[in-house]
Amino acid sequence: MEKIASPQGTKDLLNKYPFVFQKKFGQNFLIDTHVLNKIIDAAEITKEDCVLEIGPGIGSVTEELIEHAGKVIAVEIDKQLIPILEEQFGQKENFRLIHQDILKVDLKKLIEEESPNKRIKVVANLPYYITTPIIMHLLENELPIESITIMVQKEVADRLSSPPGNKQYGAITVAVNYYAKPYLVANVPRNCFMPRPNVDSAVLRLTLNETSGVEVNNRAQLFKIIKASFLQRRKTLLNALAANADLGLPKEELKTLLEDSHVGASTRGETLSLQEFARLSDYIDAFRTQKKS
Predict the structure, then answer these.
(1) Closest among 162, 155, 153, 158 to 128, alpha carbons compared
(2) pTM for the structure as a whole
(3) Residue 95 CB: number of other CB atoms within 10 A?
(4) Is 204 in contact with 271 (CB distance < 8 Å)?
(5) I want to staple 162 with a disulfide (CB 3.0 to 4.6 A). Which of 89, 136, 166, 200 is the partner?
(6) What is the 3-state secondary structure (H, E, C) of 168-233?
(7) 3-state secondary structure at position 123
(8) Is 248 helix (H, G, I), strand (E, B) or coil?
(9) Residue 218: helix, strand or coil by DSSP?
(10) Contact (CB, 8 A) for 53 and 40
């Protein structure tokens, strides 16, 4: 039989069921086995692993994950796809299907029930409109995740893996680097999907840091500074931070802090690395403490 992740395999499966593509879910199914192999290789799936698959669709990647992993937990939001996935894989002992929105799943509880004492590998094909919320949901909730291998729009992959100073570099880039090391695995042209999307995609792997990507005294403040620095990219760091009410620091004090931390008042946020943001945050934190005493 043809693999599901092939043009004929996908056509055969879709002809078998009364399925209607849902634009709101950004459904584009992989039909290229070479790309499929790159995903499996990049995720380094073994029989020792429990894989959390987000958005399995018709099972293009699921089929291969089941063959390679010890266990696969697939979370699918579209009720149309549940009968397809159940019929295809329901008899597999190492497969569990959950019909729910991934952002509403209690992932800590799920992982404890399905794979206690094991780190999880996440594999996902994410639509553009919800890519960032899902990635940050996975990163921020202190889950036992080893890596996240995702198919996303190429523009998103470029942004997440961009170095400082690049036009794609933004607040999400810095935030992701705090939690994980991004690696661009492969670019994927639009003709590798059915239906064919309007943009190209890419496979990105995020390897989670065992500890945070940088030492910082006040994580909440660090993320406030990062967010404020990119709200208006053309502003200097001094003007961007001074305009942010959350920080609550007068412009003159900020200017001194920026100069003392060797960041510079005329610098723009898009040029700073995570380490430089952390240094600035610690300077501000120390200044606040001194001011209180």
Answers:
(1) 153
(2) 0.92
(3) 22
(4) no
(5) 166
(6) CCCHHHHHHHHHEEEEEEEEECHHHEECCCCCCEEEEEEEECCCCCCCCCCHHHHHHHHHHHHHCC
(7) strand
(8) coil
(9) coil
(10) no
Other CB atoms within a 10 A radius of the CB of residue 44 amount to: 14
Crossing angle of helices 171-179 and 219-231, rounded to 10°: 160
Q: What pLDDT score was predicted for residue 8?
A: 96
Report pLDDT for 213.
77
Q: Which residue has the tokens 């931070």?
A: 241
In this prediction, residue 132 carries a pLDDT of 93
Which structural domains are found in the chain, ordered by start? Answer: 7-208 (3.40.50.150), 219-292 (1.10.8.100)
47, 206, 232, 245 from 226: Cα distances, Å? 39, 20, 12, 14
Torsion angle, CA of 12/16/18/22, rounded to 10 degrees?
-30
Q: DSSP characters for 20-85?
A: ---GGGT--EE--HHHHHHHHHHHT--TT-EEEEE--TTTTTHHHHHHH-SEEEEEE--TTHHHHH
Residues in CB range of 169: below 8 A, 6 or more apart: 159, 162, 163, 270
Q: pLDDT averaged over consecutive 10-residue blocks of the chain (293 residues)?
A: 92 87 77 97 95 96 97 95 95 97 95 88 90 95 95 95 94 96 97 93 96 87 94 89 86 90 90 94 87 72
Under DSSP, the state recorded for 193 is E
In the DSSP assignment, the letter for residue 222 is H
Query: Which residue, 279, 269, 292, is CA-closest to 218?
Result: 279
Alpha-carbon distance of 120 to 258, in angstroms, equals: 40
Query: Is there a contact between 156 and 184 (Cβ–Cβ < 8 Å)?
Result: no
Side chain identity at 134, as an amino acid letter? Answer: I
Angstrom distances, CA of residue 31 to CA of 7, 13, 132: 5, 12, 25
For residues 167 and 2, give the distance between their C-alpha atoms in angstroms, rounded to a whole number: 42
CA-based R_g, the chain, Å: 22
Is the preceding omega at residue 7 within 30 degrees of 0, hence cis?
no
Tokens of 281: 């945050």
